[in-house]
Amino acid sequence: MRLAGKTAIITGGANGIGLAACGRFAEEEATVIMADYDEATGKRHEKEFRANGLDVTFVKLDVTDRESVSQMVETALQPHGKIDILINNAGILADATLVKMDPVDFKRVLDVNLTGVFNCTQEVVPHMIQNGFGKIINTSSVSGVYGNYGQTNYAATKAAVIGMTKTWAKELGKNGINVNAVAPGFTSTAMVQQMPEKVLDQMKSKVALRRLGMPEDIANAYLFLASSESDYVHGHVLHVDGGIMM
Q1: What is the pLDDT of residues 3-41, one digit of tens each?
Q2: Burial of 166 (C-beta count, 10 Å sphere; 0-12/13-18/19+)
Q3: Which of 50, 176, 187, 200 has the most crowded CB, counting CB atoms within 10 A?
């Protein structure tokens, strides 16, 4: 198995892409910490995974709260005394055009999508340095690469995540830590599935493969970057978007 003996933290792990990643990593025999603010959903999925013999533990996490992040890290260290993989997957949306965007919503998205990534990584990295090994995967977006209408706050955070990824790659490579990012395109999560059929058709028409991505498509990209197969991939932004912009 590709992740046997590894401990992985996956933030935003109770829903969508994060949930798919938790299942995929556990199937590859990782010890998985499913970290999410949604406690009820997270605990329900933890029971389901454990009933199927998968090593997944839910931890309630607010990525904007350093004490919450620190407690999550301590829980992750308990099984094996190390953290091998960090997937900074947690993120939120609060879309509006520039002239209509509420400054409160602007800051809230930055707090979760950007500061949250910084908080989790800064808490985890000292343990990876001590161990001489680590895989950090940050979730960006095609919106962070190309911009997107009505997503000033979201696109700004996802562009900044790319900048942090490349900076941390320069800083941490000497410590045996790979740092990469994944930039998903339109992905069929519960939120997207609630959109009108006409909007979904418009989204699909922009994709070369003429379909939305599935959470498993992104989870598989995370798995590649977390596995030994990507040991010489570093400071890279992997687009998983079906060819939305070529």
Answers
A1: 999 999 999 999 999 999 999 999 999 999 999 999 999
A2: middle
A3: 187
Known catalytic membership, residue 154: yes
Q: Which domains does the chain have, with CATH numbers?
A: 7-237 (3.40.50.720)
**How do strand 134-139 and strand 85-88 relate by DSSP bridges?**
parallel
> Which entry of 37, 146, 149, 154 is annotated as an active-site residue?
154
- Residue 22 has which token pair? 């938790």
Tokens of 38: 């949604």
If you ran DSSP here, which 8-state letter would residue 170 be given?
Answer: H
| Residue closest to 171 by CA, chosen among 120, 209, 110, 122 | 122
